[in-house]
Amino acid sequence: MAKQDRAIRTRRTILTAAASVFEEHGYQAATISEILSTAGVTKGALYFHFNSKEELAFGVLDAQHIQFSIPSRPCKLQELVDTAMLHAYRLQTDPMVRASVRLAMDQTATGLDRTGPFLRWSEITHDLLKQAQAQGELLPQVVPTKSSDVFVGSFAGVQSMSQVLSGYQDLTDRVSEMLRHLLPSLAQPSVIASLRLSASQGAKVFEEVQDLMEEQKAPVAVD
To answer: Which of 21, 55, 144, 172 has the smallest set of CB atoms within 10 Å of its CB?
Structure first.
């Protein structure tokens, strides 16, 4: 078990270093040697976990979707709002997520398949919109397949603008405003009135998810 824990820690160290280098330099300019230097591990240790810079990049790209899942909400549009606001909060606070998004948006990353995060976010959004539609939360003209791509594309544009203008400091405010502008074209007015759309919602959801994760780790008492 100790050996396995050490391997997990080493892998995490390498990914964290790769994220730092990718975020600072972008995919093309990043080098294995700089990642090794930042991680403080041997070349053998790195190649034990990752075969190439491309595999390292995929590991960082996956960071957007690891560990944090929103608990199911009775209102599926609230679940979509919470998903978007949590992602915005994590972009502000988690260097790994910032590096993941930097890679996904890096148009100079020749040869790197960056479609994964966009497709996963579109799938998540589409599924929630379909569930919301089945519960009568959406306007009758909404087509979830099309609306999910518009939603994800809007978020991508807003986060990119926030990164340039404020280093993500105003991102939760911008995403909150994005939601206030988009939702009237998707949701029944009665549903919009019930949604929690404040810029602080992401931090609240983050704390909720953290508490749930801690509860799951807690040992079960035995009589």
So the answer is: 55
